[in-house]
């Protein structure tokens, strides 16, 4: 009799576990949480994709416009330093600094 009670208890508890599990997986809260998680992952993917595109656009724009500007400014600075050095060697007074 004690073994029958245990069997019934174990069968009942196993069935209750399955029904409880099915109720939990079909509950509105779980379904809503799944939808929110899926929406969050899709938004994250879209954000990462658009951020990557923006980084690519900024990087290539800097390479096309910024790097040549930096090189031109460096050449201009070297040219000005060379003029000052030549003027000091020749003994003439250095030209006043140009304010642009």
Describe what you observe in this structure.
The chain is mainly alpha-helical. It has helices at 2-25, 28-90. It is a single-pass membrane protein.
The ordered string of helix (H) and strand (E) elements is HH
Query: Gap between N and C termini, in Å?
Result: 105 Å
Low-confidence segments, ≥5 residues, pLDDT <50? 4-12
Biggest sheet: strands, sense, closure? none
Helical/strand content category? mainly alpha
- Give Rg in angstroms: 38 Å
- Per DSSP E runs of 2 or more residues, the count of β-strands stands at 0
Percent in strands: under 5%
Question: Helix share of residues?
Answer: over 70%
Average of pLDDT: 81
Query: What shape does the CA trace take?
Result: rod-shaped
Number of helices: 2
Family: Belongs to the Tom22 family.
GO cellular component, one term: mitochondrial outer membrane
Pfam families: Tom22 (PF04281)
Membrane topology: Single-pass membrane protein
